[in-house]
Amino acid sequence: MRYRGFTLLEVLIAISIFALIGLGSNAVLRTVLNAEDTSRHVGDEVTIMSRALAAMERDFTQLTLRNIKDQYGDSLPALMVNFGPHTVELTRSGWSNPAQLPRSSLQRVAYSINSDDELIRHFWLVLDRAQNTEPKSQVLFTDVQDFRVSLRTDNRVLDQWPSNELQEDGDQPRLLQIDLTLAHVGSIQALYPLTAIRQGLEFWSTGEGADGNAEEPSDGPVIQ
């Protein structure tokens, strides 16, 4: 019996087929791994964004009527919007204290964008500052293209606070609005109810606020 082997051409064709199969499998594997990395990265981004927005919600919805003294002994209002070195600065209640440290549950916080296009949350360990008091800082967002804060009343939008526009008609701020634009996400708008205003209007115009905790809001921010 005569046995016939593979010709050189047949061997080359078989090798080429197996090589193509290997290349295809490798491409599929790379695609799967890249998709997994992308999914993990997106998941991490969503987690970071959720934590940052939650921190902002806690700060803005727990505004309390407590003025502070700056490092020069001058009084600063409980809420400042586009008034001073930061985009927004306020006194909030509800500062958690699991270690039971001898400090207030009130906290002074501020938000601003630095030269690296990062949205920074500043917070102070004391309310009334000494000359050497410095804030702690944490980065909430990177690649920030725009960050704006305004107040909404029943009839208008205010880009700065304190403001003299409300002295005549007594129109009251009801909502704090943020407009945040991130390079890798797009635009985010959030509205936070100013529940502390129900406790009195004095601090809006005179800066003579009272100590105390803010009322908890019934609804969270509206993200658009």
Tags for this entry?
2 helices; 224 residues; Pili subunits; 26% helix; 5-stranded antiparallel sheet; disordered C terminus; elongated; alpha+beta
Explained architecture:
This protein has one domain: GSPII I/J protein-like (Pili subunits), CATH 3.10.610. It is built from 2 helices and 12 strands; from the N terminus they run αβββββββββββαβ. It has helices at 8-61, 202-205, and strands spanning 68-69, 75-76, 79-81, 88-92, 107-113, 119-124, 136-141, 144-152, 157-158, 175-182, 186-193, 222-223. The strands form 3 sheets. A 5-stranded antiparallel sheet has the order 3-4-5-6-7, with helices on one face. A 5-stranded antiparallel sheet has the order 9-8-10-11-12, with helices on one face. A hairpin with a 5-residue loop joins β1 (68-69) and β2 (75-76).
Break the fold down into its secondary structure elements and pairings.
Elements: H1 8-61, E1 68-69, E2 75-76, E3 79-81, E4 88-92, E5 107-113, E6 119-124, E7 136-141, E8 144-152, E9 157-158, E10 175-182, E11 186-193, H2 202-205, E12 222-223
Antiparallel strand pairs: 1-2, 3-4, 4-5, 5-6, 6-7, 8-9, 8-10, 10-11, 11-12
Q: Helical stretch count?
A: 2
N-to-C order of helices and strands: HEEEEEEEEEEEHE
CATH superfamily: GSPII I/J protein-like
Roughly how many Å apart are the termini? 82 Å
Structural class: alpha+beta
Portion of residues in beta strands equals 25-35%
- Mean of all residue-level pLDDT scores: 80
- At CATH level 2, the architecture is Roll
Classify the oligomer. single chain
Helix content: 25-40%
